[in-house]
Design a protein that fits this description.
261 residues, 43% helix, 10 strands, alpha+beta, 5-stranded antiparallel β-sheet
Length: 261
């Protein structure tokens, strides 16, 4: 390899290493410890979610920064609690609304751990989707710096549903399990129509179509079982016929030998 080629190769290698290093460094060095965040919740119900943040001053190395948060919950109250290295709570702040900012975190205050709790009401569903299931942001946290960039810490989402939508989803889930075990275009068509009805918010129709899909899948399964039994029966008759034919042939041979004798 010539000197010029080696130089170009070295520059390319360094560029690749730089890209990889940037890609592997997390957006924010803050670590997420214990979490208590629901995976799903009914529309209109009140939920609480709690997240603990640790390693507050690493990657990038900072002595102070500001915590901000957002949520799609309604009627929201945020509580930010500050703990020192012994685990003792040294301060607490409360914020109202779907977003907050201004929670100052600094080594000078002795803060080594922060716990964020959000309380609110699960929002209405803007549009239903069977797959992926419709979801909302329970909370999203961000590290902000004055005169610097904002870094996302993490985001937690949950599926939200109504009693009717949950009933329809369960019916479709049951039908899907049945349809996947058979080869029936009619059952698959009914299942697809049920999902379309669900996505359109027509839950009663979705349930009816899902039940129809399950019935057709069960009918197809029964037909397959009857076909198998029929094949087994035919196979049994063939075996019996061969056995009888063989026996009669053997008897005819024996009788022929007796006459010759």
């Amino acid at each position: 390899m010539t000197k010029t080629s080696w130089s170009r190769f070295s520059k390319l290698a360094l560029a690749c290493l730089f890209v990889l290093s940037v890609a592997t460094v997390p957006a924010a060095g803050v670590s997420v410890g214990d979490t208590d965040v629901t995976d799903d919740a009914e529309v209109g119900s009140q939920v609480n979610a709690t997240v603990t943040l640790t390693n507050l001053y690493q990657n990038p190395t900072l002595e102070s920064w500001t915590l901000a948060g957002t949520t799609e919950l309604t009627e929201v109250t945020w509580t930010v609690m500050y703990f020192d290295q012994t685990g003792a709570r040294v301060d607490q702040e409360s914020f109202d609304g779907q977003s907050f900012s201004g929670a100052e975190i600094a080594t000078a205050d002795g803060t080594s751990e922060v716990r964020v709790r959000v309380t609110g009401v699960v929002p209405e569903v803007g549009g239903y989707s069977y797959d992926p299931a419709q979801s909302f942001t329970v909370l999203s946290l961000e590290q902000t710096r004055e005169g610097g960039s904002n870094n996302a810490i993490d985001e937690w989402t949950a599926v939200h549903y109504t009693e009717q939508s949950r009933e329809a989803r369960n019916a479709i889930d049951d039908a899907s399990a049945s349809v996947s075990s058979v080869n029936s275009q009619e059952a698959e068509r009914s299942l697809g129509n049920a999902i379309d009805a669900y996505n359109g918010g027509e839950f009663g129709l979705a349930i009816d179509l899902a039940e129809q899909a399950q019935e057709r899948a069960q009918q197809a399964q029964q037909s397959n079982q009857l076909m198998q039994l029929a094949l087994y029966g035919v196979g049994g008759l063939v075996v019996i016929g061969l056995a009888v034919g063989g026996f009669l042939y053997w008897r005819s041979q024996q009788q022929g030998q007796d006459k010759l004798g």
